[in-house]
Specification:
By secondary structure, this protein is mainly alpha-helical. Helix content is 47%, strand content 9%. It is built from four helices and two strands, in the order ββαααα. The longest helix has 16 residues.
């Protein structure tokens, strides 16, 4: 989910909402995940992954290592980690 009129200069990871200026992480797209039939456990896991990525105080490389170490393997975890790791432009950051 992307705020209208946004200038996108970095990649936006799966399952997130992005907005503000400069474009930054705004949270997990809960409405979209619910509409797509994700379970509460899957949604909580996705939220936890993004908490570790954006709010742990670690750089991206360390946060990804922490996520892989502490979070059980899942399709969602692997999709997010692979997306961030393989991003050519880097991913959006957070302003909080």
């Amino acid at each position: 989910m992307l705020q209208g009129g946004s200038h996108v200069n970095k990649d936006i990871p799966p399952y997130v909402m992005a907005g503000r200026l400069p474009l930054s992480y705004e949270g997990v797209n809960l409405v979209g995940l619910n509409r797509r039939g994700f379970s509460k456990e899957q949604i909580y896991a996705i939220q936890d992954i993004y908490r570790k990525l954006y709010m742990s105080g670690h750089n991206v490389t360390d946060a990804l290592a922490l996520i892989e170490e502490e979070m059980p393997a899942s399709a969602e975890r692997d999709e997010i980690v692979n997306f961030v790791r393989n991003s050519k432009r880097g991913v959006i950051r957070t302003t909080f």
